[in-house]
Amino acid sequence: MIKFFRHIRRNLMETGKTGKPALPAGRYLKYAIGEIILVVIGILIALQINNWNQKRLELDEENIILTNLKEDYQSAIEEFESLNSLRVDIISVAKEITKLSPEVIEQYPEPYLDRLFAKTLSGPTFNNKSGSLDVLLTSGKINLISSQTLKKKLIAWPGDVEDMIEDEVVHNDFYQGIFTDMLLDYLSWNNLVKSYATSGIRFNMTALEKMPDNPVVLSDYKSLLNNKKFLNILSRRATMLMITNHETKALIEQAREIIKIINNELKQ
Predict the structure, then answer these.
(1) CA–centroid distance for 75 within its chain
(2) How far from 160 is each of 28, 154, 166, 176, CA to CA, in Å?
(3) Which of 181, 200, 193 is nearest to 114 (CA)?
(4) pTM for the complete prediction?
């Protein structure tokens, strides 16, 4: 490019179209100035081409990041919906158990009651696998995201998820602590585990090794359902699950909105 401009300038000087200087020194001055101008023009053109290439590379990287983020958020939605389904099942079972009358509990076969209570043996928790977002935030490449709206939502996401996870942890401690302790005081854990495995409530399990039965460990459903503390614990646990479900539904809506923005960005 510079050689092309230099060739044109020399032709103009040779044909006198650049103006005839009063002194030979003026001709050399113009020639030097022309050389400087051509070098500057060449540098500017090279910088512009480099900027275009850099911008293209950044756009390509942004598209890769957006595609990975979209996959992560779609996976998060699927997991949220699966966890919500489990929580709804536990809440439904809790309601069914609460309605059971101790006075007529003998009318229900014990295997039926075992299966019913076995469905409460679960503490759904979110795995929080957001690898692409974690890398994006820790590497500083969040600035590659051109949409300010999307950037703000991505930055806010971890905090919102953490709020929900905190409630999950509280519920899980409650489930594995006082709730399980109450079941151990009144029921045969061996029978519950057997029913849990055959129900396939969470991991589609078909069988677990069963511990030997012991006549000392028998289920006393009547006493358990007559226990006010247990009924309150069951009700409190259901409330905790309702709260977490409400938070998770809000996160699902946020994730869908983020995916919508990502789709719009990828189309541009």
Answers:
(1) 7
(2) 70, 10, 10, 25
(3) 193
(4) 0.76
